[in-house]
Amino acid sequence: MISMSGLTGLMQIKTTRLFNRQVKKLAKKHFPVKVLKPCVRGIVDHDEVVLRRIKDHALQGRWKGYREFHPSRYGNYGHSYDGWVVVYRLDLDELVLLLVATGSHEILDK
């Protein structure tokens, strides 16, 4: 699993057990999971440049209230990992960023 320690700000970063398992699987498949940390830092710091680069956006339908981003866009990995997304939820009242799931867009169908 990738460590989220060292991220600045007052926001607490949490991950689900599902997210942790999925990251492990992606790492074994040689996905560039190291780009997750700077992507999450961009979300926490509300860095507009990073948010645009990783195509951060709100989800709709049954995923309303959640957001997703494309971590491979941060590291310029071309189209090799273009379908890789991370789904997360921000709770600004509690100052928590919860990383929910990661994988292809098919995770949104589950």
UniProtKB/TrEMBL annotation:
InterPro entries cross-referenced by the UniProt entry: RelE/ParE_toxin, RelE/ParE_toxin_dom_sf, Toxin_YafQ-like
Pfam families: YafQ_toxin
Keyword ATP-binding in record: no
Any Gene Ontology biological process: translational termination
Keywords for the protein's UniProt record, in alphabetical order: Toxin-antitoxin system
GO MF, one example: RNA endonuclease activity
Domain of life the protein comes from: Bacteria
Annotated Gene3D superfamilies: RelE-like
Name of the featured protein: RelE/StbE family addiction module toxin
Lineage, opening ranks: Bacteria, Bacillati, Actinomycetota, Actinomycetes, Bifidobacteriales
